[in-house]
Amino acid sequence: MARRNDVRPIVKLRSTGGSGYTYVTRKNRRNNPDRLVVRKYDPVLRRHVDFRDER
Asked: What is the pLDDT of residues 22-55, one digit of tens each?
């Protein structure tokens, strides 16, 4: 079975702390049509910061 990439695309989450660190995840485009913002750990800065969906 193939995945439907139009419903759950792969997105990069880039750190807003300026370190350039990224996470890769999938998001549901129907539930979250805007940019995704998640608070995660940035190992370069060694603290939690907001990670924003990069297009």
From this structure: 999 999 999 989 999 999 999 999 999 999 998 7
CATH of domain 10-54: 2.20.28.120
Nearest to 4 by CA among 33, 29, 32, 24: 29
Q: What angle do CA 44, 25, 23 make, to 5 degrees?
A: 10
Nearest alpha carbon to residue 27 among 37, 36, 40, 16 = 36
Counts of helices then strands in the chain (DSSP H, E): 0, 4
CA 44/CA 21 separation, integer angstroms: 7
